[in-house]
Specification:
DNA_Partitioning_ATPase; P-loop_NTPase; 11 helices; ATPase involved in chromosome partitioning-like protein; Rossmann fold; 39% helix; 8 strands
């Protein structure tokens, strides 16, 4: 399998899905073949962001069926968007944990990784966006990707959440090694997101860097244009180019550069891929 990344934070509301959407778009615009897997059954997931919310309801085949049945091919679920291909989420995923338990599904945390093998040669990158709440969907995302990109709020709460998340990943790694000796979970980067100008942002960044966390040398600013792009069901690159939307203001252009920098980190596998003033 080619490189796979999951964006995850145990704290909700940190802009995880917006980041996943725009990093995927940035990769796609560099002629990378990108498959995005939306594992979040809740309203406001990545599938909604890019305008395919109608696929999240109704009596149709969906990702839950693929995770429950080895005979189902994930390829049949893929839809094409402007900059990447998408496996949409579905409300039926909300019941996946109980359904797996009822069916006594073996190695249930490895189902997504197994399902992606059929399309492994067709894509350069797999970007997985699970829900924030730790459950079997998050387990599947982490097992399939094994590389985690973590958006973080630059506050004391965010700093504490990183420590808790590291403990969670360490515990999961030890557990999964029982089934696969080579299993490793790694934090690719910690990304300060929705950053402002207060002293607490600077202080928290310094604490994280002092503790040796792989913090990106830039933060993604909090900008209303990201909400506007979401409202228009576009990624930010589409929004900036569309004749139906306003032009980006000069101070908003840094967002496009940020997502391109994150794409470079994904491609090169290290935060050292970019060197930017904090």
């Amino acid at each position: 399998m080619k490189r796979a990344i999951t964006l995850w934070s145990e704290s909700g509301g940190v802009g995880k899905t917006t980041m996943a959407t725009n990093v995927s778009a940035a990769l796609g615009r560099q002629d990378e073949r990108v498959l995005v897997i939306d594992l979040d059954p809740q309203l406001g997931s990545l599938t909604d962001h890019v305008g395919y919310q109608e696929l999240k309801t109704g009596d149709r085949d969906h990702l839950g069926h693929v995770l429950l049945d080895d005979e189902k091919d994930i390829r049949s679920l893929i839809v094409e968007t402007e900059d990447f291909d998408l496996v949409p989420s579905h409300e039926g995923l909300a019941n996946i944990e109980s359904e797996m338990a009822a069916r006594n599904t073996s190695l249930r945390e490895f189902q997504l990784r197994s399902a992606l093998k059929s399309v492994a040669g067709e894509y350069d990158y797999f970007i997985i966006d699970p829900p924030a709440t730790l459950n079997v969907l998050v387990d599947n995302a982490l097992v399939a990707a094994r590389n985690v990109l973590i958006p973080i709020e630059l506050t004391r709460k965010g700093s504490i959440s990183i420590e808790g998340l590291e403990d969670t990943l360490d515990s999961m790694e030890r557990g999964f090694k029982k089934f696969d000796d080579s299993f490793e979970l790694g934090i690719l980067a910690v990304v300060p997101n929705e950053v402002g100008d207060s002293n607490i942002y600077r202080d928290t960044r310094e604490e994280l860097e002092t503790d040796g966390k792989p913090v990106t040398p830039f933060g993604v600013r909090k900008r209303d244009v990201l909400k506007e792009a979401w409202k228009n069901q576009m990624n930010l690159f589409e929004f900036a180019e569309s004749d139906e939307t306003r032009d980006l203001r000069e101070y908003e252009g840094d967002l496009l550069a940020n997502f391109e920098q994150l794409a470079r980190i994904v491609q090169q596998g290290t935060v050292d891929a970019v060197e930017v003033e904090a």
